[in-house]
Structure formats: structure tokens, C-alpha cells
Design goal:
The termini are far apart. This protein folds into three domains: 179 residues, FAD/NAD(P)-binding domain; 123 residues, FAD/NAD(P)-binding domain (3-Layer(bba) Sandwich); 81 residues, Enolase-like, domain 1 (2-Layer Sandwich), CATH 3.30.390. The chain has eleven helices and 25 strands. The chain is globular and about 60 Å long. With 414 residues, it is of the alpha/beta class. Strands 1, 2, 3, 4, 5, 6 and 18 form a seven-stranded mixed β-sheet that branches. It has a five-stranded parallel β-sheet with strand order 8-15-9-10-11, covered by helices on one side. Strands 21-22-25-24-23 form a five-stranded antiparallel β-sheet.
């Protein structure tokens, strides 16, 4: 049996950052990363953006050159499928029969695409979108005039719609909600982005549940429950992800909408940590448990978990955020819109530079900012952190010329 001090299961951003965090705190302790992908750790955001637009080659998405891991005395093992985790014995078993024992372990297994159980889903030319391999496969097929149907109108779906349209494809987005981003966006915000994309050639089919994909040698149309047939040559499924919690559950670790961790990212076994898309953590700003699927969360929690595995005792302290790019619109979302009771539009949407402010009980709880510089939305995050009472401030908040930092200077609300 092989043995290692720090074992990292998962070769994405969280696993990569954890290894760096460990190595910075413990220059000598052995580190092994077990990744089920054939590629060394790479950056996901460019896959739907610069890479898909042909601006960045695949090689540029890797975080480090191949020799970096050896230089850092980090063992990176690719194409490794971990089949079993024994928390009590502190061992894992791989599909090839190999076993590893550890002192500390990190679960950074991320998530997998939501699978659709519909006729035609297995046709050639129907692709899920999650990995670098997925991106390469899709990109190689894209050509001007190609009709692409994207199932899913979330951030990934719209990023792909933007990039493929810019490459000359004819793109349709099919989404089951009454409008895009129906979980957090009202019709005004969703309508702005829908129209913006439509003006650039993207077609939308909202409130449409996909019932089947038709075709023989490849897809010819996506058919919805209402009978609408969306013609296509290529289908991309971007309907969200499911956290990979199977190892944790089988090992007897606490699982509830992800792997349950404490403020130091320890699971119910203090020697096993979890980070990234699969960790369910206590949010210090909003007083409830959350699981956030985004690059920023993977970046932060991977580093924090690695540092804590190597002896630090730091608590989670990130204001969660999301970013995206759709055509020439840069989006920044921060906070937690859960339970908001009204919104305030700061600025004018037609100027392509504005914020949607989510308010709950007269406190700002989240903001969705478009094409703003950091100095403009940073004070908004201060308002969230300080829980400033904003009663009667709606007119000031809506005025882009008003200095929000003057409100952020108010003492913390009780």
C-alpha cells in the first residue's frame, strides 16, 4: 500500500489550490493529487469564452506546466478513479486496485452534468459540457452557419450561446423556466439579457421542457413538450451539475446537498476536508448553510482547505461571488439573494452599466452588477457585510452618481 501525508481526491481548481496551500505551509510533507481526468489541472471559465471563441488555445488553460508538480514535490496522478474511501482506516482504493493511506485528505471531486433521460440523448452530436475534453469536442465541430441547440439557459448556456454566435453559429437556447435565470432574476433583468442576446442572433425558447431529440446519424431537432421543434445540427446540454458526493456518503460522512463541512472545511471526520462545488458550508455573512458552484468558491475553499490541512486554523470568510461574460457584458454577482423582498435598479440598463440591488428587510443582501469597475461595486459589498439599514434610501441607491461608500461608513446594524 502507498502512503502519503496529504491526499487530494480531485484534480480541478480546488485540488490544485489545496496542493499549493499545503506546500506553502508544509514544504516537506508528501502531497498526492488523484484526478479522474486525463488532463492536469486547468481553468474552466475560458472553456465557454476565450477558448470557445478561438482566442485561447487549450494549452493556455492549464494552471501550471507539466514540470511544475515535480518541482514542488507534488505527485499528480491522472486517469485515477477512486472507488472507495475508508474514513476510519484512512485509506482509498482506486479502480485499478491500487490503495493509498493518508493522514489528511481532501474531497475536491466537484460535480457532474445533470443527465437528461429523453429519447435521442445518446445520438452522435449531442454533448454535455463540463470538461476540457467536452470543450475540445464541441469547438472542433463549430463552423459558420451550424445550427446549435443549447439545453439550459444558465450562465454556462448563455456564455456558450455568446461564444458560438460570435463564431458564426446559429444558436437557440431552450430553457424550462418562465425566463432565463428565473431563480434570481426578475422579468426586467432577464428581459434585458434576453433582448441583448436576441439582437445578436440568439433565439430563445423559454418555459419549454425538452421531451426528445430527433435524428438518426445526428440531431436534426430538439422537440419540446409543447410540440415545438427547434432545428439543429448540434446539441449541447448545459442543465447544471450534481455534486459528486458518492465517496463521502459511502464513507459515512455527513451529506446534505453536498458534503457537510464546518467553518474550517472539515467534514464530519476532522481529518477529511471538502472544498469546491460539493461542499455545504456555513456562510458567516448570511447565517445559513450554502453550496456555491463557481470558480471563486473553488479557488478560495481549495486554498483554505489546504492551509488548514497543513496546520492553519482559519475559518471560512468569503463573500461568495459569481462572474460571467456574455458578449461584451461583464457580470459580477455577490452575496445571497435568497428571500429578497424587493430590488432596486442602480443606474440605467440601457447604458449597459448598472446594478440590480437585492434588498431584504431594508438590508442589501446581494448585487448583480454589469460592466462596472471594482471601485463601483466594492462599496455595495460593504453594505452587505455591514448590514446597513437602507430604509428610505432607495432614491439614493438608484442614482449612479450617489456615493454609496458614504452609506457603507454607517455603523454595523444590530
Amino acid at each position: 500500500m502507498n502512503s502519503v501525508k496529504y491526499l487530494i481526491v480531485g484534480g480541478g481548481l480546488s485540488g490544485h489550490n489545496a496542493a499549493k496551500g499545503i506546500r506553502a505551509a508544509d514544504p516537506q510533507g508528501s502531497v498526492v493529487i488523484l484526478s479522474n481526468e486525463p488532463h492536469r489541472p486547468y481553468d474552466r471559465p475560458p472553456l465557454t469564452k476565450d477558448y470557445m471563441q478561438g482566442k485561447t488555445p487549450a494549452e493556455k488553460t492549464y494552471y501550471e506546466p507539466p514540470h511544475w508538480y515535480g518541482e514542488q514535490n507534488i505527485t499528480l496522478l491522472l486517469d485515477c478513479q477512486v472507488e472507495r474511501l475508508d474514513a476510519q482506516a484512512k485509506t482509498v482504493k482506486l479502480a485499478n486496485g491500487e490503495e493509498w493511506s493518508f493522514q489528511k485528505a481532501l474531497l475536491a471531486t466537484g460535480g457532474r452534468p445533470v443527465k437528461l433521460d429523453i429519447p435521442g440523448i445518446d445520438l452522435p452530436g449531442v454533448h454535455y459540457f463540463r470538461t476540457l475534453a467536452d470543450a475540445v469536442t464541441v469547438s472542433d465541430k463549430v463552423a459558420p452557419g451550424l445550427s446549435v441547440a443549447i439545453i439550459g439557459g444558465g450562465f454556462i448556456g448563455l456564455e456558450l450561446a455568446s461564444s458560438l454566435t460570435q463564431r458564426g453559429a446559429k444558436v437557440s437556447v431552450i430553457d424550462g423556466g418562465p425566463h432565463i435565470w428565473s431563480r434570481f432574476a426578475d422579468e426586467t433583468l432577464a428581459g434585458f439579457f434576453t433582448r441583448y442576446c436576441q439582437d445578436r442572433g440568439v433565439k430563445f425558447y423559454n418555459a419549454q421542457r425538452v421531451s426528445r431529440i430527433e435524428g438518426t446519424a445526428g440531431p436534426t431537432s430538439v422537440v419540446t413538450a409543447s410540440g415545438t421543434a427547434v432545428p439543429c445540427d448540434l446539441v449541447i446540454v448545459a442543465a447544471g451539475i450534481v455534486p459528486n458526493v458518492e465517496l463521502a456518503r459511502q464513507a459515512g460522512l455527513a451529506v446534505d446537498n453536498g458534503v457537510v463541512v464546518n467553518e474550517r472545511l472539515q467534514t464530519s471526520d476532522p481529518d477529511i476536508y471538502a472544498a469546491g462545488d460539493l461542499c455545504n458550508y456555513p456562510d458567516p455573512y448570511f447565517g445559513r448553510r450554502r453550496r456555491v458552484e463557481h470558480w471563486g468558491q473553488a479557488d478560495y475553499t481549495g486554498t483554505l482547505a489546504g492551509q488548514n490541512m497543513a496546520g492553519a486554523n482559519q475559518a471560512y470568510n468569503l463573500m461568495s461571488y459569481v462572474f460571467s461574460d456574455i458578449f461584451d457584458l461583464h457580470l459580477e454577482f455577490a452575496g445571497d439573494e435568497h428571500g429578497f423582498d424587493r430590488v432596486v435598479i442602480r443606474g440605467r440598463m440601457e447604458d449597459k452599466a448598472f446594478s440590480v440591488l437585492y434588498v431584504k428587510d431594508n438590508r442589501l443582501v446581494a448585487h448583480f452588477s454589469v460592466n462596472l469597475k471594482r471601485k463601483q461595486f466594492s462599496p455595495l459589498q460593504k453594505l452587505i457585510e455591514k448590514k446597513v439599514d437602507l430604509a428610505g434610501r432607495e432614491t439614493q441607491l438608484a442614482d449612479m452618481s450617489f456615493d454609496v461608500s458614504t452609506l457603507a461608513a454607517v455603523a454595523v446594524a444590530p
